Amino acid sequence: MKNHHYDIIFVGWGASTCILLIEMAKHSLLNNKKLLIIEPSEKLENDKTFCFWANRKDDIYKNFSTIISKSWTSIQINDNESNPIDPTEYFHVDSIDLYNWTRKIMLKYNIEHSREKVFKIEEKEHLNINTLEKKYTSDWIFDSRPPDFNNIPNGDFNISQSFFGLKVELKEKELDQSVYHMMDFRIPQEKSTQFVYILPYTSNSALIELTRFGKKIIDKLEAEKELDKFITKNFGSYKVISKEEGVIPMSSNLPEQSSGKKWVNIGTRAGNVKPSTGYAFKNMYRHAKLICDQGVLKAKKLKPNKRFLFYDQLLLIILTIWPTKGKPIFERLFNVKSSYFVLQFLDEKTSLKEELSMFYKLQIGIFIKSIFYWFYWKFKKLLFPILMIAYILLDDSIASNELLNLSSNNLAVLTFGLLIIGIPHGALDHLTEILSKKNTINFKFIFYYLLMMVPILLIWFWVPTLGLVFFLIYSAWHFGQTEINNWKIDSNAIAIFWGIVLFSSLFLIHFEEFSKILLIMNIKIPMVNFNYVLIGNLLLIFPFLTAIYFQKLEWLIIVAFFLLSNKESLLLTFGLYFIFQHSRIGWMHLKNKLKHTHLKMFKNALPFNIGAIFLYLIAIYYLNLAPEKSIAYFFVFLSAISFPHVICMHFFYKKNSIK
Predict the structure, then answer these.
(1) Contact 456, 470 (CB under 8 A)
(2) Which of 182, 458, 464, 638 is the most exposed place for a label (fewest CB within 10 A)?
């Protein structure tokens, strides 16, 4: 396959690419460059409508005035009186005019167009692009492919803005051409937030669109029926000129997209769609100006205003949990505030004082409730690490030598945790499709699983020391790999570093107990006269500093947990971490990727879960072990059953790239 090299490649030919090309041409950044657009479509249809509000003195108006096809000076909500928005106006741009403008730029600068679909981009010596038929390399890539919203975790608040519109010619009533109908809620809400949006082009022609904010995408046939009722009731008979439809993601947390020093995400992929409204044109323009600032290409991205992002997230929480509350909130907003203020607020140009006054006049109760949900959503990752610390600080139960320094309460907590999530999280390996492609526990899967377990058990039986070393190596890697995926740190070195420090520190701090447990399994460690506890604690300085560098609060709390558990037993410390941190995270990674409920996950795990417990109980029964030996040998069993699990999860992470 021949390799084709370009100075700049644009992946996709949507509005963001058009706006960027226009800005680059203005700054002479396309001169003497070999350029390519990769896009399957020829872009010959008027497939989208773009709108934005601005003052005629603003740069955005001056830059696009030649293709603005219509403007409105007032806004109407429901059948209320219209409200002027001067000194701003609401401007309309047809997508075909954007495409045609960029087509002229393409001719002027000899920009090639390849009608292909990109399926892979990699950053090596050059930026590499693979399509089905060709390979390309480039110095710069501007990537506007739609993000993969399937990777958004289930716990995030995300809905869609779906719409279906008719461009119509009215035969009976006339429209006021200066008034844009922003939201008309006089339609059924269908357990969501629905409104009609009207853009009058002339006194008897308009785009009349049904828009839904909700989880369920609007159905085309249902929307057409609803629009027919609405138009007939309010405007009389009409003729359909054309139709348009689309879906805009509204997410509290845009999935992270790959990028690099000269691989720049633009458009929706760059997070330039305002989460709570779906407006994007202005942000795409601002981003293009930032990239072309001072006539030099820069791999920059728009930084969101954290205060307004917080407001967006609150609204998305409300629209996700209480979908029918959108209508009364928007209606009251336009009753208590002018349309001009609302547009300034959506443009993120209002003051905190003005915003607090606005929220006070809205349904303040539901916004306060949404703040509690927001705190839980933002800090839920910290909940279990904090509870682990709380447990070791509050635990005053008396440890037993027979239970290897565990109290009966400790044993009950760990047993419960192992049954609920510790063992079940490893009983879902069939869902990774690594050992079996059928997503089921079949004979082939069980055979391969046991085939990997048996050598580990034999190593423990024949050479216990080697079994221990091997167990520590693959466990350190697995624990580290799980955590870096959780913390979204793309570094295998950090993974193995954290895994090694974790186990080294844990066993040094609890060295006496560690030695005692190993002695039960006929492994004797030579004693050296130095302060094991001090060295174990000093080792934790390195992950502590690394966590600060990467700004990972959860990691800092985990380090604090190990520091505070110095006086606790080894089994309690390791057990709490293994169950309520490591196993929980692995469980959630699978759950989010597979889009399963907790109940469905547990049902899937149940057969393997029961089988694992049954095997262990049979072994204990026939070996007739004392309680402390039963607990010690449980970890031998755990190490054997963990090995195939580690293999499955390693390839799962590699395949699904959760980072």
Answers:
(1) yes
(2) 458
Give the three-class secondary structure for 502.
helix
Q: Are 166 and 243 in contact (CB under 8 A)?
A: yes
Q: Summarize the chain as % helix, strand, coil (round to 5).
A: 55, 20, 30
pTM for this predicted structure: 0.83
Q: Collect all residues with Cβ–Cβ distance below 8 Å to 528 and sequence separation of at least 6.
A: none
- CATH homologous superfamily of 158-251 equals D-Amino Acid Oxidase, subunit A, domain 2 (3.30.9.10)
| CA distances to 389, 408, 423, 485 from 419, in Å | 21, 16, 6, 24
Cα separation, 36 vs 33, in Å, equals 10
Stretches in the chain below the pLDDT threshold 70: 1-2, 149-155, 254-260, 616, 619-629, 631-632, 657-659
Collapsing DSSP to helix, strand or coil, 262 comes out as: coil
pLDDT number for residue 98: 96
Largest CA distance in the chain: 98
Is residue 535 within 8 Å of 508, Cβ to Cβ?
yes
Beta strands 118-123 and 127-131: pairing type?
antiparallel
pLDDT reported for residue 659: 44
Give the CATH superfamily of 3-70+87-152+254-300. FAD/NAD(P)-binding domain (3.50.50.60)
Domain ranges in the chain?
3-70+87-152+254-300, 158-251, 374-393+406-656
Q: From the DSSP assignment, how many helices (H) and strands (E) are in the chain? A: 23, 17
